[in-house]
Structures are given as structure tokens and as C-alpha cells.
Amino acid sequence: MTGLRIVVVTKTNEGGAWIATQARTLQARGHEPVVILPAGPGRLTARLEELGVRTVASPFDFRFRPTPATVVRLWRLRRLLRGLRPDVVNYHLYAAALAVRLASLGLRFRRVHTVVGPLFLESPVIRAVERVLCRLDHLVVCGTAYTSRRYGELGLPVERRPTVTVGIDMSHYTPPERRESERAKARAELGLPQQAFVVIMVAFVYPPRRLDGARRGIKGHDVLFEAWRVFRTRRPDAHLLLVGGGNGPGGVAYRNELVRRYDVTADSSVTWLNSVEDVRPAYRAANLSVSPSLSEGHGAPVEAHAMSVPSVVSDAGGLPETVDGQSGWVVPRGDATALAEALEAAYREYATGRLDAHGDHARRYTERHFDRQQAEHRVVDLVEETVGRRRATDPRRLSPLEAGE
User: I need a surface site. Which of 36, 206, 267, 362 has the fewest CB within 10 A?
Assistant: First the structure.
């Protein structure tokens, strides 16, 4: 099946790098992707333009204020979608999903919702809303098996919630050929101690939000700092490398709060870098990756594993799917004591020279399960199958919504 017009809608023109790679795969399969995204310059917009993918500025700003202007902008989005005459509309990130569902009621095209992270499903209010609205999606492509299960709990049939990871470019994240020499070089460049057991956490800092009845930082930085206090007293040769600045003003403020609360500036065992253009040197310097998130898709562990760095992850969301018994450790989310114990277990493997073998296994596991090229083709297969089912459907059996009534 070729020649489909597939309109992609996203609320960001900066992130969402996977959208560009999926658009490239759509082009290679003979389809015409058109991406609707916020106006103005952005990394995603620039990348799409490099690939020759048509972009269109969204008339809706993906903010749902209770004002007449919101209704007007949704109507303009509807008019834009109708004018593009898509076979499929594929929306990414939850605000875009809400906008397209509302703006396209009654329009006859297939709707595919791509869900990378499950955070919005942690909210009881959103789950109640989503139990109704997900019925408007012909397909929900779930980035994790965890997300697919959550949609199953909302009553969505299994055939409408396939699991397809966003994946990773395995050719970009490659382990060092000369591990020890490249590790030493990376540590020298980053100013890290050469003989340390280096633990890395790669994550933006997001402002706290309400989770489990309390306001918490979603990435679990505070959990790691509490665990580190305990672990560092046992292993004074350990060093913590944090990579990631604050996401937006709220994230910057929360990062500053964490620095003060845990006296990071005075702690010689902690190095905290702001966001970097290329995270690979930081992974080359590390012995172990840690992801203590309270809600997550597959996240940073996939990158770490592609670089042959094993991980400790929380049991939140899709994180447990990134490891098996040989590539890492899984701990209960929010449990600093359990995290400290897992760090100790990894250190023992490091001290006996076995930890790098865990990293090599992690690389092989990631190649099997998280290769982006395979994932992109699977997504396009699903989109094509969705349109094929539409064409095979007897119009007389369409629901009023599908028939545009």
C-alpha cells in the first residue's frame, strides 16, 4: 500500500525526535507525511525540513483554557485537517491527542494515537476521561507493554493497543571498542576521578507534580540523593554523575531546590551537568546507569544499555521492560533503601570485575528488543493495516461518528 497522506500532529517543535525518523520511514514507503506542529523555529521543525517533510503551523496552541478563543482555534484546526484530506491522522503527546479528537469529530479519516510515555495515565481524572475518548482512536500505538495494559484496563481491545517501542538508533549509541582507555579519556574530559565507581543518571529535572497523594519530582532525583547518602558512606570511592538541566522555569527552580536540600555544591562525590548536546561521552565514563523515576516509558536505560552500561531502574511504567536478570536490577519506585541496596549489589559486581559483562548483555538485549529501525517499520505496517481495514469496511455498517453524521 503506497500513496497515503498521513498527517502527524504534535504539540512540540523541539522534542519528539522519533517523529522525524518515522516521517522518513513513511517517505521511504511511498507515503506523504505532513506534520502539524507549533509555529516558529525548533529542532524538530528543522529536522523535518532537512528531510523534505512538509510542516504546517498549528492554529491551536494545545492549551485548553475555558475561553471562546480555545473553541475558535480548535475550529481552525478542524478546518486545517479537513483541508489536508488525510487518510490517517497520527497524534503524539496527550495535548495533541485531545485537540485532534475534539477538532475532528465526525470527519472521516483514521485516527492513530502514538503514546510514548504513560504519565498522563497515572492521573485518576485523565483515566476516567480517557476511558471514553480512547474509543475515538482506531489504533493506540503503545510505546510500552505497561501502557498497553493500562489501556486494556480502560476497556480497549487488545488488537487496538499494540505495543511498539519508540526504539533507539543502535548505530548512534555504540559501546567503546577500547573500553578502559575510552572510559579514562571521557572521565578526564568530564573532570571525574579515574579510579571511581561512576554511577550516571540522565534526565531532565521537571517541576514536582502530584503523585500518590504528594507532590514529587517525576524523575526521582530526590530518591537517588537519599539512596546516595547511604551508599556513599559504605563506598567512598563512588561518584555520581547527573546529566540534565531543569525543564522550563519550574524545572530550573526545582533543580536549584535539590542542590540546596542535598548540599550538592559541597559534595565532592557528585557532579551535576546541565543538558549536553551529546550524552555518549558521559555514558562512556560510567560503570552503571540509574533511573529512579516515579513514572516513565522506557527512558534513558535504553541509551545506557546500547552503550553497554547496565542499569538500576525503578518498577515504574515501562522501565522494568528494559532489563532482564543479567542486564540490570529493578527496585520499587520511591524506595531509597531498596535503591541503595541495588547500588551495593552492582558495586559488588564491579569490584569482582563482572559488571562490564552485565553491560555487554544489556547491549545484546537492547539490539533484540529496542532497535528503532524495526520499530519504525512496524508502526508504518500498523498505519497501513488501519487504512486497509477502513477500505474493506462496508460503508453501510459505519457508526454515525465514522459516517460523519
Answer: 267
